[in-house]
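#structure-requests
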Amino acid sequence: MRRRKVFIILLLLLVAGTVFFCGRRCSHDVPDINVDSVFVNLNEKIIAKRAKQADKVFKDLNCAGLNGVMLYAEQGQVVYENALGWRDLNKRQKDSLRIDDAFQLSSDSKMFTAEAIMLLKADGKLDYDDDVRKYIPQLPYEGVTIRQLLNHRSGLPRYDAMADKHWPDRKKPFSNEALIKMLAEKKPEVYGAPDACFFYNNINYALLASVVERVSGMHFEDFMRERIFEPLGMEHSYIYSMRDETSVSMYMPVEAHGHELYRSGPVKMQNDYLNGVMGDKIMFSTVEDLWIFNQALDRNALLPDSLQAEAFVPGSPEWKNDENYGFGWRMSKEHPNMFFHYGWWKGYRSAIIRDVHKNRFLALLTNTTYNFPPELLWDFICDTTVQLPEAEPLHE
């Protein structure tokens, strides 16, 4: 009887996660699950109900234009995961997206760059309040610390605007080292004094990637692989590097290509010279690898709890629009136990949300610039009508 019950649960969850897309933009051919007629155990009812809710959210987004992959987990288990849409929207013979397809995380890469800095801190190789010029002496600005880079409080100028103005050949990759050299030569005007205010700026995390390289003596992509991806078993995650390329290829060598959406239709995004800069973006990962990372944070698999917890401490005394920023994570006053980040860059959008109180996790990765409403994800993950029992303590 028990085996039969487990089989029914697995079968129904599989049905809930299966979509007959059949070349159409939107399809809701998956039959509804009659939860109450099947399950007896309350917890199983709730899990199935959450799976149905997640399925509705994802399919509604797909009908509105989303093309991507979503995973939702609760109480330490994956409740729902699904892929809807295509790897390349411009191909005549379209390949369907798969759960294990890697997408660019865009700015969601920052939480991993911050983790790398925290690992070096744990190794005793740097301190958060060190002046950045201790590691990057070419930096022409005084008083900027590692912590200020992590918290986006450096006041430094935007590197993309600087590169657009001064980089002579857009067919050649613009790298982290080229960024540092250009800062030293051009000395663009800063946005403010160090630690004066919060100002979200990609240059902070690009410089942090360079700090990782100079402190560790390793290429950033190698450090990330050896210290984070491989130890955790994140087999489909990597940093896209243009280090050895002398020219910008037309497209990145990926399966799930990014797309810009226009009224006339989707356009596959070409590679960009700014993709040579690492740390603030350009990490690729899957929803399942992100789930692995979330579990590692819960279990302090990379860092002791006292060090890992620092990533989730608000870095600014003031709260801008009720939001604050830690080490690679956003947070809000309204949801003090939830940490999140969004990404958007060159044909990709993403969202990662983790609720440490209710032990819930959601990852949404897309390969289009469809402007999905984050509030829909928040309404789902903050649902108060369906609650599971308190999570049991997590074990190594």
